[in-house]
Amino acid sequence: MVFSWGNLATKQLIVGMVCHGIALAFLAYGVYAFYLQELVLPELTRCVGAAVLFVGMGLAPQLFFMSVSQIVSQAEDTTLKSTLQTYVFNLGIFLMICSLLMEWLYD
């Protein structure tokens, strides 16, 4: 198989790898900031939430190459992978909201 940037599967693989790489970077920064700098729990929770959001985006990289009308028309798709991606994405949003509430309560 010849490597081609024009191949849709190759693009999706690259987008998935980039999303998971960004998630790892967020986790590394969160652990570094928590243990070695400040010991601030809202910052760690925010970094974990952002990492979970990027993992959720990496589970469905085909969404980056679809139009909005196609995404909305396929919203009823209830395969196991889309259900898992929905749960992971919702967990990330929940963690981000929790971090904002914790930061608001700590101030």
Topology of this protein?
Elements: H1 8-37, H2 41-59, H3 68-73, H4 80-106
Tell me what you see in this structure:
- The protein is mainly α and 107 residues long.
- The protein has one domain (8-106).
- The chain is built from 4 helices and no strands.
- The protein has helices spanning 8-37, 41-59, 68-73, 80-106.
- Helix 1 (8-37) runs antiparallel to helix 2 (41-59) and helix 2 runs antiparallel to helix 4.
Alpha plus pi helix count? 4
Elements, N to C (H/E): HHHH
| Backbone CA Rg | 17 Å
What's the average pLDDT?
A: 84
Total number of β-strand segments?
0
Keywords:
107 residues, mainly alpha, 77% helix, globular, transmembrane helix
Quick synopsis:
With 107 residues, the protein is mainly α.
